Automatic annotation (TrEMBL):
Belongs to the terpene synthase family. 2-methylisoborneol synthase subfamily. The lineage of its organism: Bacteria, Bacillati, Actinomycetota, Actinomycetes, Kitasatosporales. This is Terpene synthase. It comes from Streptomyces boncukensis. Transmembrane segments: none annotated. Keywords: Lyase, Magnesium, Metal-binding. NCBIfam families: f2_encap_cargo2 (NF041167). GO terms for molecular function: metal ion binding; terpene synthase activity.
Amino acid sequence: MTLRIPGGPTGPGTAGLRIAGLRERERERESEQEEVEQEEAEQEHGAERGGVPDGEQPVRPIPGIRHRPAVQPDPALVAEVDRRTEQWAKELDLVPPEWEDQFAGFGFGRAVCLGHPDHADVERLLVAARLLVAENLVDDCYCEDHGGSPEGLGARLLIAHSALDPLHSAPEYEASWRAGTTEDAPLRSYRSAMEHALPWAAPAQADRLRHDLGRLHLGYLGEAAWSLDGATPAVWEYLVMRQFNNFRPCLTLTDLVAGYELPAPLQALAPVQRLTALAGNAATLVNDLYSYTKELRAQHPHLNLPTVLARRDQLPERDAYLRAVEVHNTIMDAFESESAQLRTSVPDPVLARYLTGLHSWVAGNHEWHATNTYRYTLPDYWPQESA
Ligand SMILES: CC(C)=CCC/C(C)=C(/C)COP(=O)(O)OP(=O)(O)O
Ligand SMILES: [Mg+2]
């Protein structure tokens, strides 16, 4: 996503932002060269490993990051989810040939199998996998580096949201809406992924999913607005944006994928909402930390927590990164201690299962990031022996 800091903001307290703007331009120049080198390295790397992430890779966690080990998925199940997800993507013409390596390198099957160890069956894992593909296509093609832009994003997301939450209007507009919501790959994938999800979802689960995807779109719009303004948000503002531009729609599928329903009155309880948000925020900051170097190299500069901390708190890059690890850990600690308390104060077995599902998803997400060396590499901030 493009971050423009034209002459930099002016006024009291903005000196650090101007310095950050200069540093950013410097970094942009350096990164042009690095990008070329990185592309060459990635091509070589992808070719060496057939472009497929290696599930056997040792987990290399960020030193000091709070995480739990994930339940290891059955490789045959991962392969089956990958095969059928790829087949679906081909049928809908979602992935041009030049993105095929990246599609394989993402490891959609591994991501959903790691996140849902208590899945009921492969069909339900496929619901999660198709949605994950669609969410990433919308992010990449509408917002980020696969043709995305903050310009016009609101209108694109509005129409995309109607591929999930259909138009109910005068019948004479039905055909145009239908045609208009299959025009590109993000639209086709959203529409089809939702159609595949609905038979498995209770009405309140479907509504929860639409609501969480609406939150996601709100987050994208906030990020785009800062990008258009050339602004770096305050740290707390960034955290608000990232609470919505968040993995939450994936986590809250946990009961659907496991084949039960967390009833809406339980799901709506304030502590359940808080724990869902804490789990989503911990999981999403894991992405900020593991994707940090990838985002420094990105075609367009990309906000993440270490970058925002460096600019707004005027911290050296390494200190900002380590501070972001601490923020993540604080959120993880709150998630763990408060979920233990809630299990005691509301001893409901379905709620307990949902909370276990959130924990599993958070652990699986960490493992996926820490082993996906096709997408992510850590910064060189630790002596060799502890990294
Ligand atoms: C719901 C979903 C999977 C959306 C994709 C975007 C998102 C909410 C993320 C948390 C991924 O973040 P990011 O765009 O930074 O991803 P990479 O760092 O490129 O892996
Ligand atoms: Mg990221």
